[in-house]
Fold each of these.
Amino acid sequence: MPKNQYISPSDAFASGSLTFDKIPLCQYKKTLAQEKKLYTKADFMRIYRDMRIIREFETMLNDIKTKSAYNGVEYNNPGPAHLSIGQEASAVGQAYCLDINDFTFGSHRSHGEILAKGLSSIEKLTETELYDIMQEFLGGNILRVVEGKQEKQGDVKELAVDFLLYGALAEIFARTTGFNKGLGGSMHAFFIPFGIFPNNAIVGGAAPVALGAALYKRSNHKKGIVIANSGDGALGRGPVLEALNMASMDQIRKLWGMDGKYEDGGMPILFNVFNNFYGMGGQTRGETMGFDIAARLGAGFSPDMLHAEKVNGYDPLAVIDATQRKKELLLKGEGPAMLEVATYRVSGHSPSDSSTYRSEEEIEEWKAACPIAAYRKKMVEGGIATEEEFDAIESDIIKRITKICRMSIDEEISPRMDLDSQPDIISSIMFSNQSVPSMDPDREAEVLIPKEENPRIKQLAGKVRYAFDEKGDMLPKIKQFGLRDGIFEAILDKFYEDPTLIAYGEDNRDWGGAFAVYRGLTEAIPYHRFFNSPISEAAIVGSAVGYAMAGGRAIVELMYADFIGCAGDEIFNQLSKWQSMSAGILKMPVVVRVSVGSKYGAQHSQDWTALTAHIPGLKVCFPATPYDAKGLMCAALNGTDPVIFFESQRIYDIGEQFHEGGVPQGSYEIPFGEPDVKRVGTDVTILTIGAVLYRGLAAAQKLQEQYGISAEVIDARSIVPFNYEKVLESVKKTGRIIIVGDACDRNSVMRDMASNIAEMAFDYLDAPPVVFGSRNWITPAYEFEKYFFPQADGIIDVISQKILPIPGHVSTVNESEIEHIERNKQGL
Amino acid sequence: MANPVIMPRQGQSVEACIITAWHKKVGDTVSAGELLFSYETDKSAFDEKSPVSGTVLAILASDGDVVPCLDTVCIIGRAGEDISAFTGAPVAEAKEEEVVPEMPMAVSSLAQAPAHSARQEGDDILRISPRAKALALQTGVDMTRVAATGPHGRIIQRDIDAALDSGYHSTVADVEAYLAGEYKGNTAVTVTQGTALEVVKTQPDNTVYVSGTDFGLYEEAPMSGVRKAISRSMCASLTEMAQLTLNASFDATAVMEYRKHLKENAEILGLGKITLNDMVLYAVSRTLLGHPYINANLIGETFRLYHHANIGLAVDTDRGLLVPTLFGADTMTLSQIAAASKGAAERARSGQLSPDEMSGGSFTVTNLGSLGIESFTPVINPPQTAILGVCTITNRLRADGSVYPAMGLSLTFDHRAVDGAPAAKFLAELCTNLENFQMLLAK
């Protein structure tokens, strides 16, 4: 896209052959003598301890799951336990290299990763830092449980290990004293102060999220690296491949920077694959994949092949060696990188796994190669420590895990959330509902020109901010300050206010967005804050989630609502859930701008508000006027919650016809959830969602002029949250309501609203709330749209057919009950 | 494939008909040949049978609607079929006349939408919106008696408003009975003297409710289609024409004797049914041809001067005044006129006249003589130029003091078409012909 990158036919057709460098496979060959120079005895012993803690922790979980008892402690845990027994060296080796500025994102099977990173961070933090973290976290709730229960008092690091193990186990057992008050659970445990970011129940789900955290570091010049952990099975997932590609995009090293500054190099992310050879039961090598060696994937993403290599994950020292080298590459700006850590899970995928997909011999051979036993043997044989020393560590660990287990199941000290006495406790964390104008108020925003020099701002100065002149005549479209201008102004202002704000999506830079909302941003905002993404909706939205988790604010764009499916998991499971799964610890200030088409057929014209509104944890709005669009965008950008911001391509150029005085130049907020009465009436209420507002108003006009019926038109503006009070007030007055939108009728937001209104205003209704949406068809070509999308005349027809028969009115659409019964019979 | 059923054209002069009753409702199955709906023209009533078998998918015109001939009135097909192809423009044009609303119009006044009983056939549910129900309970309107105009015969708010506007309240006892579930909706209600609130029952669908004592009781009856047509026609006649009436009488001795003769010889002649009116018709038919502007229509500024006497015969029926035409009465014998007028009157009374039979008249004869009327002012049937009223017979004295039976004749003519003298001449000639009836017969 940039004009300075010239594409010539001679380059494109240049003859030659593509060569690849060698990908190293398990080349770590250091002797113990060499290693002794790198590690102290304490280091060696700590590596053992950490592996052994993980092993015991998971053994305990396995016993609880399979025998309902561990070491005399009886308990029944109905929740999941995806264990990684056998993989301890891989996790501990990785974590050993990381400090508190480095973030890890877990795989689907990540108790080990979490504990390893936690133990590593405890080692690296000072006692004061550690104690402060424990004291501050959840108001010291976890600390209070574990403090004073150590044999040796006053050892903050020992206390911190108990804190870590207890916080993780209480989380797995859904206790309110868990790291996330039990709302995350086994597959979503994390502890941000130690740099432990969420693991993910969705296989590969963390890859684009981790990319976002790396993007935060890169765009905000923060220290440290990010590791995206995944299993080998996750390499079959699109979002993982999208994240690998997006992290590798050329522009980061070639185009990013500003006035010679901030050329910080490539994305500081390591894609770390714990290859245990099975995705649950499907064998990746030899059955479900074709890569043979997972590290081969690196060759597909960048000329430096992501510095890919494979390492022996049963040797913690080999893993440390490889991870350390990758970390150095990343810190030098040569990221991203990829590491395959070959390992093996001797435990089942879950306790119900009967290993039908692998042989007994195979498991036995891997058990015999146990990384912990092998390491201990090497240490004893190398004279680092005696068997007795190791026995003492082991016995301490068993005692510790038993203690932690007993504490975690104690209903007194580890209670569950009490939804009887506090029924709103989960409600209270679904949204953070904060107003934080800048996520980093201490820092200056990096911009290319002063705001007032912006060419778009200068152009807008010549536009009229209200659609009508003094005489009440509508101005020509070209003179009107349009809806796209309102969105632009809100975003531009925020770019200057919040230094963490970034915006990206397809064709955002240079082009200015497919619908010209961003025209004028390219000149103002440097690449590392505003860029073109690859056509990778999963990575676009997923990375925004990680960006926000790491502390930033992001606006990402889906060019068409029809592409929501491409970012399905990222919107439905990641963006929506992390605030609440973290018990309110994480904030998610992300705005996903979604454009709704109208003229481009079946896959480019769909209003999918219902899909997003269905998912708890997302705010959803669909403004239809410049005043509302700017005000809602300001509210979205000041807020801390994820917002799906629908925009209609039908009305990007529409002027402000309602708010007297036009669209204010400065910042102002339209509160989320407040519908707006756009026309006052007494006989029937027309509630519209999105651009259909203008068809609703045309219908109201015709009802008045032709039939003397006074219609009140309410613009929903927001979908989630939604304050029904104003609508109910209207319905109590009119007794009648039709809900109109461009979405397909079945399971639409309109249906949901109709159902709610019927329940809440039943006694006031003179007719059932009636829905008039689009047909349950594909969107046909533009020329046939009037047969598909609701039109003004159709609104009158439906009112006459179902609500208030209008003498003399002749309908052109058939929305009768018998017609609907028949359509539903046919699935239409 | 759904089939449209059209409003048939009953004669070339008929442009639109009024639906009087649907015998099927939407969703009913109907067999070809089954009675589908009834309708009437200005002057006659008809039944329409279904041309096809199927389910009634849509009824596009309700009882009382004026539907242009050949327009679709209902659609019959397979249940659930798409009928949008039939619900478009033609009906819209047809209804244009009615679409013009009064401005401004309150929603409650929209209750002129087709009314139904809120109780559907075979369905014991009272269909009423929660809002309307609440309003009915609050105001005391008997919701079981309100005409429903909502979808599917549901009572909606405007129906209760309409009931309130018409001054109706049900008795407190009615409301209590309703609430107790003991109220019998459509049964007759006894009018009790002295109660504060009373109900008059007419038809279940247009029951009229009044408040107060029995002195205020009245019934409302809608204007029938025929009545509306007469009303329009008579108003037009009196507002558009310059009408005046000439009264004369003739010595009826000759016609009475002739009639007596025919009666006495009825067995021989077989002409016993010939009436005095038939003889007047005969005389009129013979007299008219010499007075072309009386045997005429005036349309705009053009006269239609008929070559034959097409005499309209005013017939009083239960449905209202109907005027069948005796075409070419001047070519008929007295006996033929008698038979034709008798037949036409019978068909008029039984509603079997075709619209074509009720148009094309060049002159009209109306008779109130049998009711003792001595003279009156008949109103011309447009676009004719004159009408003859036949009055009763009274006894008068001749100059010599002898008594004779005098039959009155009242001729109303349109002064725009004919002046007084020519009209008087026609009347005089008619009197002469009647006084010398046997000579006229011989001509």
Amino acid sequence: MTDSTSKTVVLWLFVAAALVTLSAPTIVVLGASFTAGNIITFPPDGLSLKWYGAIAQASDLRQAFLRSLIVAAICTAVAIPVGTLAGIALAKYRVRFARSIQIYLLLPFTIPLIGSGIGMMLVFGEMGVLGRLWPVGIACCVINLPFMIWAVTASASNLSPDLELAAANCGAPPLQRFLYITLPAVLPGVITGSLLMFILALNEFLVSLLLVDARSVTLPVQIYNSIRSIITPDLAAISVVFIACAGLAIALLDRLVGLDIFLKSK
Amino acid sequence: MVFGNVHAVRAASFDLPRGRFLTILGPSGSGKTTLLRMIAGFDRPTGGEIFINGEPVNAVPPHRRAIGMVFQKLALFPHMTAAENVAFPLKMRRHDARLIPQKVERYLDLVRLGGYGGRRINELSGGQQQRVAIARALVFEPDLLLLDEPLAALDRKLREEMQLEFRRIQKELGVTTINVTHDQREALVVSDEIIVMDGGTIQQKARPVDAYRAPSNAFVANFIGVTNFIAGRVTEVAAPRVAFEANGVPLAGLSADAALVAGMPCAGALRAEQVRIAAGNGRLDGLETVVDGHVVDCIFEGERVVYEIRVPALADTLMRVFDHDPESHLQFGPGDAVRLGWNARDMHVFQK
């Protein structure tokens, strides 16, 4: 065996191992969801769509899914203006304490989720709003905001500072400069960031767990609650629906702006 | 204009008649770009006033000034097509929307980009992007066109092509233009008039040929062209002729500086192309000054050879000499003894 073929073999082994490890959970859940039996197993015990039928009937799962969508929508709606403005400001303008602000905005990553979750539980509890959906949306936004800001700064820092001057020179007053030049130029970053925020909020479990009550459970919490009683294949089916939603968002992202901008974000 | 405690532009008063092409030439940090940004309205002068068409404009924000600008890095809008870029100033300046498409078309034709309007900016070559930037700066018929070294990033061939293009368009439209560059060749080629700047101060304002032939001080003489300086002391002034001695060798030149008097330290400036070169025992007829030296280095530049000659009689001054003669190219090598000669009328004497 020559050096280059052994290198190829080793490389492919690594790639195969990585692919298997990354996709195994999804494949297992996907397989288990199509089972015809009554317990969750992999490989599935016969093939059927009956558990998909079951989740379509289960109003608690459906409502939990709807609540998750609402939470994700609230999170994204808040993140778009806040993250866009913060991202542009950090990338383009000489903000005082820019460095400190950047570190401050990264804090949500460094604090364990359980810690920030408890903190927010206390705050929202004090306000008497626990059990409603909007605090969950806000909380998801707070903990994931760095993703949004990263996506926007990645677009904005590629922007030449001359662009706004050029727009001014073309006769555009300040607001028009922002609307016609700066905003469109960072739009790919905004789209990337908001889809990311949407997926992350849709999937958020730990913080939701601390902030919801029986009337306002989101889908991940609902699934978790169900696991604690009986594990039935409908959970695998709803997980697949869940994964499909996230997949859809990624596909949308790729279609709209291309994944490379996200992969390049700093 | 003061940034912190740095005076970027100190004394820079000049006026520019309508329709002229002016180049502000200077090394980086000379204040030329700051001057341009003040004219465009991006920076506000800390002192003094700028007038356009006789109106003071210091308080006028950039988007209300009728000035077109081509930026150093072009600053084309990447999310727009070439035509949308050119249409942008017309939209922002509220031109009649029905007339915009044909105006855009006309200016794209002017910069020889007819048919390229639908292209995105990143689908255009460097030279084509330049042309879009020019069209965008001119389409609304500004009172003044500013060029902030837009050619600096181009390769030499394209740069020289675009220089002539700028000149052609400027003459065709008759738009008053201020160009900023550190490229002396560009300044000489494109301009009706040159301002040489250094240290935030105007050193000379003159036609290109005068700035080259009669530099007003040592900085200008050094910055434009390849110039030899010979340090000495003034012995006699008979304006415009000045006699001086360098290391005991009597030399002479011309000076417009009335402050020059006998006994002053001075420097004689001599263009490399004004010096004739011959072999060590050769004859240089009709030249007033002849000195001997030896070749230190010879640099082949294609159309000419540059010799570096050390002259012991002038305190080992290193002189650069051009040889354009294709017959005699590379006739001397390092170490060869040579003889240099020049005329006093080609030497400019400055205070030191």
Amino acid sequence: MNEIIEKLTTCIEFGKINQKSPFPPSMRGEVGADELTKQALEEGIKPTEILEQGLIPGMNAVGLKFSQGKVFVPEMLMAAKAMSTALVHLKPYFQSGEVKRKGTFIIGTVFGDLHDIGKNLVAMTVEGAGWEVIDLGVDVKAETFLDTLEKYPDSTVGISALLTTTMANMESVVKMLKEKHPSTKILVGGAPLNTEFSNKIGADFYCRDPQGAVAYLNNL
Amino acid sequence: MHLQQFNIPNLLLEINRAEIYAVLGVSAEARGLVDEYIDEVFMNGPELLKITGGYLIVEDVVMDTKLKQVLVNGIPFNIKNIIFQQLKASKKIAVFACTIGDALFEKSRTLMVNNEMLHGYIYDIYGSLAVENAMEQIQNNLKLEMAKTGSGISNRYSPGYCGWMVSEQKKLFSLLPPGFCGISLSDSCLMQPIKSISGFIGIGPEIHHKAYTCEVCDSSQCLYRNLKQNK
């Protein structure tokens, strides 16, 4: 495999954003995902190869370590930041259609709830796994999920809630989306949820952690 | 009934680095970076805190052993078995609330929106610890006050924990004066400002504060559990 691509994977896995970034200490002074992505493009490496062989494997590696408890939230967030920095260079190729995403993932915190840290972590990890993510933010009404789904009809939807009161709001969102788009897959997640609740409200999958969401999406 | 409200000076807060590590989870590799952010938060975070908290001591308290409910001023609270067991010897209940205001939460979210997720998350954790720490000080005040009357106090228990439904916040806040500490409730019982806490503390001669009772609760995302497990 190309040496730049290998280095890029390492930079994403360990959250090395750019040369200036002091993190991780073991890579201090080295170039990061920012410079390497630019260099790879300048050297004529195809954007698809950069994404699929360089960036995504790096995010998968850190995501796996996170779900195994080998790294923590700081490493995940730094990896995601390195990934988003690299993706800026690939943006024109996404827009031209030269690089294709795996699909579109619409995510938001259900109406009535303003908690977003878990939702953000899932959004960043899914984006890092090669999906286009449309993050609707917090306090998202059923109609907003539906309107967005109608703009991107082949999307998968993720709904988050942190409170026992707001998780109840998920049911009406799932119902509205499934009535209009029965084949759309819906993931739900959040601290008070479990698989039983997910089944009860008619969602397709209870997502325990970010990597679980990626694994589910990749198997669709 | 006896109402107490306090404004806690920021300088009195006792939040240490280890508590943030415990909630965040920090490897040796990430420690340097995290420390840099924590230093900044310790320096600038306190200015963003506007801490107000207090409690109302209610004497009209009836324990319904059969339904595992407590009636406070005649209002039934379905506190479920775990909390009921801890409060059942209470002769009075202190209904408490505490907030750090909006500014720190807004700072946290501004950082996150600007792709500074880790920095913003550390602000968020600091806010959670600040409101708990402030309430700890208010609770200590209550403890001293009650000790003079020969009573002890329990741990504090909040809707959303140990099986007590968040939806009971509405009844809880109906016991407090309107706008108490500047906290309001959304339709989904979310407190505004977000970094606010509320709940009950039991009071009575047979009531004692206990160490963490995580083993009897099934919440996997609780701040106290994370602190205990990661220390």
Amino acid sequence: MTELKKTALYDLHRSLGAKAIPFAGYKMPVNYPLGIMKEHLYCRKSAGLFDVSHMGQLVISSNTQSMQFIATELEKLLPIDVLGLGKDRQRYGFLPNKEGGLIDDLMISNRADHYFVVINASRKEIDFKYLKENISKEIDVDLIKTRALIAIQGPQSEKILSSQIGELSSLTYLDVKNFSYKGETLWVSRSGYTGQDGFEISLPNSLCEVFCKNILEQDGIEPIGLGARDTLRLECGLCLYGQDLNETITPIEAGLKWAIQKVRRAGGEREGGFVGQKKILKQIEEQPYFKREAFFPDGKAPLRSGTKLFSDDKGKNEIGMITSGGYSPSLERPISMGYLNYNKFNVDEPIFGEVRNKFFSVTLTKLPFVPTSFKRN
Amino acid sequence: MKFTEEHEWLESDGDIVKVGITEYAAEQLGDIVFIELPDIGTSVTKGQEIVVIESVKAASDILAPLDGEITEINNAIVDDPSMVNNDPTGEAWFFKMSLKNQGELDGLMSEDEYKKHIE
């Protein structure tokens, strides 16, 4: 086994008493002494600091070509409106393969003279290679290793972060802005993956520890591990690549049609023209029979990723699978997301999940389990 | 009290032993949200998975510490699994069992031996 990588915050995690686990090749904190449940609730109520430096940070730029050229090239790989993404704005997107499945999902920012893309830790080498090989040679793709990535999330995040870097009230959800901090530049976006208001900050590795220590000295913020990051994103119905998304699931099946702007859909000004367009455009028109859904297990047992779903309690008619599931600290009950195959299932039929050879009934519900609370205009 | 390598404690009262998990185990598991106990009257053999315990992050099993039969279960921890995090060696016992062979209890670890085991 290759040795696990460490982020720039590794020593701080240790000093804070984090319990470390291997995750996507990194030694990452799963929780701190507070524990997943209390960390989750603290973030919802006040604010949390997350080390997400294991994620990939790509800078896409060109010495010879315009941003418009780069956007046009990116639109050949991403089914989203890149050309229409204004300066200092960020949006969600993904990289489909030829069959319409997803290589990865991502956040892309227009940072005036380059695009900045945040990708999943487990996919960064794959994405990097794919982009290098499939984009114009006039465009440079860099996977930057010199910067850390920190998320500050929760209702108190604006107040806490602004105490260190200055006024943030002019930023709304998915705005992007540079801030100076100890002579270096922080790349700040008003976004995150908890479903709450918050920020992500890309900053030089060398500054990361002092920055985080200063943030954690403020009242109302606690360090939060990957355990609570998972329960927070699940409550808001956000997909985790490798569980809810993979190379065989299309964005339409995953319920991500909203992320494909009309300009790229059939009849739009820049319709199609992206990898995987055939299947994705067809599914937008026809509705897929295989769809991501939300479930409430009726009992107390959590139904986790990998749980098979049946329309009977004998395990005869398999209709789908749970891809993310666990206990919701906010709702104090188990919640799950997964996929249902409507060729094998009618909505008036019961649903059972099989755990340890037992069948537990579940009820279809709607996402999100907990409403999002972004700061919109 | 006696202890197993699987982080269970056993307290004997005549022919019956009360079984629970140690503070160390409860802390390692994290916030416990679901517990499934065996039925009363179940015959169990040492090492058999007899309790399902789920924390916020994962499911784990608790193994029968010795051979015997389940005589009583603590439904209070099923109703409120967080009791196990709060009072693992007191109120939050899991089940009581009669042992097939009382003598086997002596083969388990003492408190001092268990403390060394988890160091």
